[in-house]
Design a protein that fits this description.
Elements: H1 2-5, H2 10-17, H3 33-51, H4 57-66, H5 72-86, H6 96-113, H7 116-161, H8 178-192, H9 205-211, H10 214-233, E1 235-237, E2 240-242, H11 251-254, H12 277-296, E3 302-304, E4 309-311, H13 318-330, H14 333-346, E5 354-356, H15 357-375, H16 378-391, E6 405-407, E7 413-414, E8 421-423, H17 424-427, H18 431-441, H19 444-459, E9 471-473, E10 479-480, E11 484-485, H20 492-504, H21 510-526, E12 528-530, E13 537-539, E14 541-543, E15 546-548, E16 550-552, H22 558-567, H23 572-590, E17 600-603, E18 614-615, H24 628-640, H25 644-659, H26 687-700, E19 713-715, E20 721-723
Antiparallel strand pairs: 1-2, 3-4, 5-6, 6-7, 8-9, 9-10, 11-14, 12-13, 14-15, 16-17, 17-18, 19-20
Bound molecules: 1-deoxymannojirimycin.
Subcellular location: Endoplasmic reticulum membrane
Cofactor: Ca(2+)
Main location: endoplasmic reticulum
């Protein structure tokens, strides 16, 4: 479009000058009458400008003989003949004045010989040419102005697109004004104490910064740069110091550490005590899982341990990123270093690949942010920012409820092919990560986008006593398929993130708390029942008023979340429910022949002698190495200090080792938890086994309750710890 308005490029003029034939061709710019008219004028002008000055009488005679007006064909002839005239020698040498006079006289004679019509036509053509010349000069100046304006627009557009797909920032390419922003951020360190105590959300940073005087800012910058230099010369491994030459990446790669994080030190991590026996058991399990991943799936998404190969989902080394913080926590220094090297050298998000917004946020963005917080290595923050930017197009929907999928290479976001709905749990379980990304980078758009979603869902009707339906439309922003309520798939982490965001933000966002507490009341009112004969409390589902005694293993996150809420001051009866549900989740494991929970359990609600509490349908007998039971055991132990929860977790680890461990390396999900002789490996180790399941087991067994303490950090729904913004 811009190019079409800029007509007078040399090649365009040439094309126009080749003939008026072009005027009879169909218009290529029907909607742009003016530019089209202009190009027509140009063609006409050029053609006649060449002919008119040399109009010879012979030519005119020829022309006149063919009609009343200057025919196109005649024009061409005229041009040719004129040039041949030029090559003829002058017949007589005359003085300039005489020559001029004679020519004038001859011209006057010839002019008089012309018919009135011919004269009028010539005068008209001359007048027209002059007018065209004038218009042309105006047009050229306009178009050049437009050209420069358009270039500016293009540049502006490029800048606007940049945040979606930014090139990784290099140290040398630091934008102008960055130092200012930096000084504002760092100045806060100076004024408010060590970096790790800088807990205010980023949107106040620039405001505060503007109030500070320049001197203070300079001093802060100087000090911050000093800190920064120190930071660059060492890489800390859990308190140990590694000199730069020991670092895994070449110096050029170290430039990746160019983002100046707001929080250089991690306050969620402190040097742990040596691992106890059970923790050593988890380390051993992790190393076995990692052995398989390293050997057969390094840098790929998931290990297929039986076939000794891998599967791809996003093609982004999902397992490796999901496991970064686990390796750090388990003290696996060498493994962490190797994985860090892969991230530094091989993790490239400029890929034409669709990712699921939720899954990639909780695993990749969450994993990178946690790795950054634990290690203080800004490589991870730099990658997180890059990735976060690439996810942002997902929010460009009419309702601002994000699409489920986004292409991180092209920025094209969309719903699944069969619907324009998104899943409620997915759009409401990305907030911890995006909010934290904003806090660390000072870029507000991440936080704003996800909080818009939270606000919108808060205000929506269609809930049942705080319980939400499972789908929401990205166009209308309304719930769809209403009337079905579950704490399982598609709704689960909506509830989890209400509480966790409230905790993350320092317990100030009361709307989140209200929605959470209301939802728990909704669960109690509509979804809780007891099984027979053991009276296990379970959470069922409600579909259009009909209760179903079906509970996904996914629901086993709930006892842990309830206990976390109680730890942060919520009503004691939440803890009663947490304990009861924890018992149920344990029984979902314990009552199976393998000691591992099925994906979905059905509870028997009627007293019949031949029925157990937990029943499993053939299609639901699989176990995907999911974390929810051990996740809740971790919280229950932290809150109650009752060691039975540790024991239950230990039993589950033994079961994983017995029925899912693949000798050559790795663990596999299984098809049948009710067949201890033939559990049937499914040949897949999900990334959450190393990202979540083993991490929660390790933390569950920790004697130190402050190891990633509940008052210091909040775990995202993929078990990646993020700091709480202000002390409880
Ligand atoms: C994980 O990706 C997360 O825990 C998510 O919230 C639910 N599904 C898996 C684990 O089961």
């Amino acid at each position: 479009m811009v190019g079409e308005r800029v007509v007078p490029r040399p090649e365009r003029l040439e094309r126009a000058g080749r003939g008026l034939r072009a005027q009879s061709q169909p218009r290529t710019q029907p909607q742009q009458g003016r530019p089209f008219f202009r190009s027509g004028v140009l063609r006409f002008t050029f053609r006649h400008a060449r002919v008119t000055p040399d109009l010879a009488p012979r030519d005119r005679a020829q022309n006149s003989g063919k009609g009343d007006g200057p025919q196109l064909k005649a024009d061409v002839t005229a041009t040719k003949d004129t040039s041949s005239n030029r090559s003829q020698p002058a017949p007589v040498r005359e003085s300039a004045g005489c020559l001029q006079g004679c020519r004038c006289a001859r011209f006057s004679d010839k002019w008089k010989q012309l018919s009135r019509l011919q004269r009028n036509v010539i005068l008209f053509v001359l007048g027209f040419l002059i007018l065209c010349g004038f218009l042309y000069s105006l047009q050229v100046s306009d178009q050049w102005k437009a050209l420069s304006g358009s270039r500016a627009e293009v540049e502006k557009m490029k800048l606007e697109v940049l945040p979606v797909l930014p090139a990784p920032q290099k140290e040398s390419a630091e934008p102008e004004g960055f130092a200012d922003i930096l000084s504002q951020k760092r100045q806060r360190h100076l004024r408010r104490g060590p970096p790790h105590l800088q807990i205010r959300p980023p949107n106040t940073v620039s405001k505060d910064g503007m109030q500070d005087d320049a001197k203070e800012r300079e001093a802060a910058l100087g000090k911050a740069q000093q800190e920064e230099n120190t930071q660059r010369t060492v890489i800390s491994w859990r308190g140990a110091v590694i000199e730069p030459e020991q670092a895994t990446e070449p110096p050029s790669k170290r430039a990746e550490a160019s983002i100046k994080p707001l929080f250089l030190a991690s306050r969620i991590w402190k040097e742990p005590a040596p691992p106890n026996e059970r923790q050593k058991g988890v380390i051993e399990a992790f190393l076995h899982a990692w052995k398989g991943y390293q050997k057969f799936a390094w840098g790929h998404d998931e290990l297929k341990p039986v076939s000794k190969t891998f599967s791809e989902w996003f093609g982004l080394g999902l397992t490796l990123i999901d496991a970064l913080d686990t390796m750090w926590i388990l003290g696996l220094k060498q493994e962490f270093k190797e994985a860090r090297k892969w991230v530094s050298e091989n993790l490239d998000f400029q890929k034409n690949v669709d990712v699921n917004l939720f899954e990639s946020t909780i695993r990749i963005l969450g994993g990178l942010l946690s790795a950054y917080h634990l290690s203080g290595d800004s490589l991870f923050l730099s990658k997180a920012e890059d990735f976060g930017n690439r996810l942002m197009p997902a929010f460009t929907t009419p309702s601002k409820i994000p699409y489920s999928d986004v292409n991180i290479g092209t920025g094209f976001a969309h719903s699944p092919q069969w619907t324009s709905d998104s899943t409620v749990a997915e759009v409401t379980s990305i907030q911890l990560e995006f909010r934290e990304l904003s806090r660390l980078t000072g870029i507000k758009k991440f936080q704003e986008a996800v909080e818009e979603v939270t606000k919108h869902i808060h205000s929506l009707s269609g809930k049942k006593d705080g319980l939400v339906p499972m789908f929401i439309n990205t166009n209308s922003g309304l719930f769809t398929h209403p009337g079905v309520f579950t704490l399982g798939a598609r709704a689960d982490s909506y509830y989890e993130y209400l509480l966790k965001q409230w905790i993350q933000g320092g317990k100030k966002e009361t709307q989140l708390l209200e929605d959470y507490v209301r939802a728990i009341e909704g669960i109690k009112a509509h979804l809780l029942r007891q099984s027979q004969p053991r009276k296990l409390t379970f959470v069922g589902e409600l579909a259009h008023g009909r209760f179903s005694a079906k509970m996904d293993h996914l629901v086993c996150f709930l006892p842990g979340t309830l206990a976390l809420g109680v730890h942060h001051g919520l009503p004691a009866d939440h803890m009663d429910l947490a304990r009861a549900l924890m018992e149920t989740c344990y029984q979902m494991n314990q009552q199976m022949e393998t000691g591992l929970s099925p994906e979905i359990a059905h509870f028997n609600m009627y007293p019949r002698a031949d029925h157990k509490d937990v029943e499993v349908k053939p299609a639901d007998r699989h176990n995907l190495l999911r974390p929810e039971t051990v996740e809740s055991l971790f919280y229950l132990y932290r809150v109650t200090k009752d060691r039975k929860y540790q024991d239950w977790g230990w039993e589950i680890l033994q079961s994983f080792n017995k029925y899912t461990r693949v000798p050559s390396g790795g663990y596999s999900s299984i098809n049948n938890v009710q067949n201890s002789h033939k559990p049937e490996p499914r040949d897949k180790m999900e990334s959450f086994f190393v990202g979540e399941t083993l991490k929660y087991l390790y933390l569950l067994f920790s004697d130190d309750l402050e190891l990633l303490g509940l008052d210091t950090c909040v775990f995202n729904t993929e078990a990646h710890p993020l700091p709480i913004w202000s002390p409880a």
